[in-house]
User: Fold this.
Amino acid sequence: MRAVTAEWVAGAADGRLEADPAIEVTGVVRDSREAGPGSLYVALPGERVDGHDFVDDALRAGAALAVVDRSVDGPSVVVDDCAEALGRIARDYLRLLKESGRPTVIGITGSVGKTTTKDLLAQILPNVVVPVESYNNEIGMPLTVLQAGDETQNLVLEMGANGAGHIERLCRIAPPDVAVVLAVGTAHIGMYDSIDAVAETKAEIVRGRAEGAIVILNGDDPKVAAMAGLADRVTTFGIESGDVRAHDLTIEGGRPRFVLTRGRESARVTLRLVGRHNVANALAAAAVALVRGMALDEVAERLCEAHPVSPHRMALTTRPDGITILDDAYNASPESMRAALQALGQMANGRRAIAVVGEMLELGDESASAHEEVGRLAGSLRLDGLVVVGEGARPAYDVAVRQGQVTTVEFADSVDDAAAFLDRTLAPGDLILLKSSHGSGLWELADRLVEADR
Assistant:
């Protein structure tokens, strides 16, 4: 982060300065344990704790200034709402950086794939800042903006939404110079009236783009492709259609191989990521890199070298005892669940394939039918085992039992029960997938399984 003064922070935050105006800030944190010399500590309210309770800790750790909503002992900027102030600080800070012509803001939205695409861009683009984990909301995105500095050429921002207007607000903080829409799906569908309402929300990134921005759209998704009518500079990507394409796609050991093409240019790519669905993420990342001026050969080479970064996202681990764990337990939607189960089937290659699935959250009235589809798909793939964890996912178990196409179907009330079942049944050579929404807790079981044989 470029150094700014306390006076500048107060002006950007529209707050009252209760500190020496010349104090310099060189970084922003929301956790007092991360504070150090030069930090700006933002005292945000949380579900269980209030950041104001830790202002003293942050200042003792060296923080230069705190943003608070009430007067405290120590240097501070007092504002009406700390979260709103953080957004205003990030907005003005980005404007400050852009006075020198950089960085280019690359905004990414979509029902699935944001974090994987971000992780790929982190390994492809030069001088790039990307979000930590899935910082994609009104707190995480401004914190990412504030990580950028004068040397940053590319600032990649995830823009998530749980309802109408969320992405619009994020775009007011950081209007994208390159706006990417990956997919319109049923993740969080319980927060919307319809799939068309989801599409309308994702389109906010196109409407909120910076003047002269390039819009990158998934040509294989009809609801995304339709957004081309909202922009005058559009690049598309896709397996079936797009300016940036994947030809001759094959899957070997779960890993995609294809020829990356744009016009008459082409280069071969073998991804280290697992699953056919990651081809779309790779193509989106390639499209961004190409519109940013990189050569296609270099983009293809970096795609081949890129590896999984964020935890619990199609992370593949083979233990010393020969059991292979495919951990995709960070989050789940009907679309990503289907993709993960299909990847499991593609990777089996004669091994015993077992899926452990938990509840997909925030599906509203669609929840029962979506989980029933999981049971049907497990049967059509002829999986050797299906372990359904938690009452919310029970429809998957009921359908799988009724169809009788999965060799072994087990219901577990809890993660502990699922762990006990797996301890009794897993054998060397088994391939096991774990997939659920984060709140269902299967990521804890994934961690246990990965660590179990070490």
About this structure: The chain has three domains: 4-84, 102-305, 315-451. Residues 315-451 form a domain with the Protein-Tyrosine Phosphatase; Chain A fold (CATH 3.90.190.20). The longest helix spans residues 82-98.
